[in-house]
Amino acid sequence: MSAELQDLVRIDATGTAHPVGKNASRWLRARRGAFRLLPAPQHVVFMRFVGEDGQRDAEDGAVVRLAGEITKPGALCDIISLVGQAGWEGELVALDLTSSRSLFFKAGTVVGARSSVETDRIGEVLYRYGALGREQIDATLAALGPDQRFGEVAVRLGFLDRARLYQLLARQAEEIAHHVMLAGDGVFYFLERFDEEQIASRQNLTVSGLLMEAVRRMDEARYFRERIPSSMHVPERLPGRAPPTNELRKMWDAIDGHLPIAELARATGQGEFDATRAVFQLIQAGLVAVHAPRPTGPTAIVTLFNDAVRAILAEVDEAGHGDEVRWQLAAFSSGAGVYDALFRRAGPSEEGTVLPEPTIANAIVLAGPEQAETMLAQWLYEYASFAMFVAEPLLRLGADGLTQRRSELPPVEHSGVPSIGRDAPLSRRVGPLIGQLAPK
């Protein structure tokens, strides 16, 4: 059963709701109780819990002040701007099938953030910024007791000082906020109040500052990804070039031709976005070049695949052919006989990406532990290659407009290969990524 059908509920002629898919059944079971059906457009069903008395009481949950569907990245920026300007107090929740992120507002500022996503947890944030290593994270988790916070235990163990922890707790809240604002799919709810105990670390982030940073990231990311397709790409210094004398020197000194940008971010204590920007500026200055990552292990293989498919679908979406390519990929997946099982509980998302952990676990079940990595690379290579095969003819149909927009940007310089501009064919820009997955 497809992901869409897993969430399906059918209402019959008597008004009885029947869950069709497992997700729908599970969600409805978790909401057992008395709900009031609220007035809504014909194509929407909106209910809220009221208890057996049928009245909306304070203990029945926060009032839903705003709600809607998320259909594209940046869609929530207008909602956040409205909440900030109105000075509302409450919780903005952004949900999709696999994750939940919340921002807590008070007097026009974001005072806290919460996420169910593993990579948003403070331990992972401390790791990405180079504040803790994996061994220190494991030791902190082992010492963590009931009602204790990860950061406080890490400070007590001497792994970092309190000032650095406070700084990175603010970064954690900022990153969650950026994920919310850049979400491209799902639903959102603004709840009129929240429990202060839900906020693990109280912050004071201005809405205007968060919005400006989100817009800047969306704008700059379009340029970055042409030259630096992923944080797993590896920069290397170009021979005979003098080092920079400005703030880029720290990144220049860390580049050794082996560390990917994600690890350079740890080495320099920056976030991945700031590290990517620094490498991008070094490329523009003609001081470094980047090469595609060399996959070492199943997680790196899935990361390469995600970067390649995300780039393909982003381009066909821009050309207005995204739905057709996704339909072709769905047909290819069903016909091949392996992808439904490989992608079970893993995706693909609207961007085309899959979750690494369930994908790898599914590959082990399908191919066995010894052959899982080899077969995973082969299956993902064939899927991404088919996506390229389907996309390129469709892109040529509307190539004039796309070429004109891309040609306004500078070309991409790679060491030892011709410049690759934004007007280059998709295969020249994404092919090196897919090539890394090809069976050896």
Automatic annotation (TrEMBL):
InterPro entries: PatA-like_N, T2SS_E_N_sf. It holds the Pfam family DUF4388. Residues 76-221 form the PatA-like N-terminal domain. This is PatA-like N-terminal domain-containing protein. It comes from Chondromyces apiculatus DSM 436.
